[in-house]
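Task: sequence design from structure.
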């Protein structure tokens, strides 16, 4: 009966949340009927073989004993090289513990390439604790930026720009709060994915090259630039246009244009003299179309 209840809970979740359309770039959907790349400690992790089909595969997570309040329960780790993009959303489908426990999401970066993670040489991006005091299945979606993730490292040169390279893996740590009712910890995981930040990063292309024609025939020159660049674009019709610039974490840094403009060729200057070097995005938005392009500020 219990397994049938779990199956029914996942089936309802899939139907009501349009899950298959919102999962983004899948890192693991547990459809392989196994747990390749996963390791665990302090907790047990077991693939569900009773309802094992491509749409609802998942792993059960449970403690060996009955933890009390304020205790570290254990962790699960997926060792898989993956390039996360700052500003996008880390998305994990978890089964609630229905108790006062929390989960912390960690992205692991092996900076010295020795196939292990140490605080003095490597880097961890760690989320704030997320409550698991809910029943049934829930998508945990958290934006990968400096407001939601902290840098954990003793490496003095470490910074958030680490997201320019592949992560070594992703780790979930489970802990109980002081108000946790002593009992066996039980949870589950059915999806790990990355969801693009549609507001900023959709349809960007690198530099002035493009695999498809730009609606606005947009380009910026020079690119890379230091400290200013000119954004050129064409409006097919008279329209209201907004051109905004964002940093690589999805934060708006400047609005360049916000007005009605005639059809034809246009240009606007972007000066980044007071900004740090790195990747920036400019978004051209009209009622008819939105387009995002990428540029590089290199001091």
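Answer:
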């Amino acid at each position: 009966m219990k397994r049938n209840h779990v199956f029914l809970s996942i089936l309802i979740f899939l139907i009501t949340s349009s899950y298959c359309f919102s999962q983004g770039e899948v890192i693991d959907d547990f459809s392989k009927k196994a747990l390749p790349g996963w390791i665990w400690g302090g907790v047990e992790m077991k693939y569900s073989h009773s309802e094992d089909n491509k749409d609802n595969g998942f792993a059960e997570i449970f403690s060996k004993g009955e933890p009390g309040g304020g205790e570290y329960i254990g962790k699960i780790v997926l060792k898989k090289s993956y390039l996360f993009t700052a500003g996008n959303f880390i998305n994990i489908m978890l089964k609630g513990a229905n108790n006062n426990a929390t989960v912390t999401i960690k992205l692991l970066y092996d900076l010295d390439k020795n196939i292990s993670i140490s605080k003095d040489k490597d880097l961890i991006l760690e989320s704030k604790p997320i409550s698991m005091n809910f029943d049934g299945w829930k998508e945990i979606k958290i934006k990968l930026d400096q407001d939601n993730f902290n840098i954990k490292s003793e490496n003095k040169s470490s910074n958030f720009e680490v997201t320019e390279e592949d992560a070594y893996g992703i780790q979930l740590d489970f802990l109980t709060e002081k108000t946790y009712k002593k009992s066996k910890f039980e949870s589950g995981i059915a999806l790990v994915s990355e969801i693009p930040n549609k507001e900023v990063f959709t349809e960007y292309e690198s530099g002035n090259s493009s695999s498809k024609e730009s609606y606005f025939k947009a380009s910026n020159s020079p690119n890379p630039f230091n400290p200013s660049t000119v954004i050129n674009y064409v409006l097919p019709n008279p329209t209201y246009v907004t051109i905004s610039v964002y940093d690589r974490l999805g934060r708006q840094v400047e609005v360049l244009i916000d007005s009605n403009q005639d059809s034809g060729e246009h240009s606007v200057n972007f000066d980044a003299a007071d900004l740090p070097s790195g990747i920036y995005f400019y978004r051209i938005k009209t009622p008819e179309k939105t387009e995002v392009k990428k540029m590089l500020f290199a001091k």
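Residues 144 and 263 are 38 Å apart (CA to CA).
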